[in-house]
Amino acid sequence: MGRVRTxxxxxxxxxxxxxxxxxFTADFEHNKVIIGDYADIKSKRLRNFVAGxxxxxxxxxxxxxxxxxxITPVAI
Length: 76
Description:
Blueprint: H1 7-20, H2 28-38, H3 44-70
Helix pairs in contact: 1-3, 2-3
């Protein structure tokens, strides 16, 4: 089973993604820097949790888009 993330992490991550969704990538280190530009998070641990969750969401979205592009319509 995976790690359970608190509601606080999910809410902060979603609000930051709404502000700057296009700037985030699947790279955790890059996302940590971007979060510093959009949120004033004092705790390094909380910032890392948020960056990790955003990275997870970006990868999940990318995988879903790749799966949709692999599915080809079947002609009947």
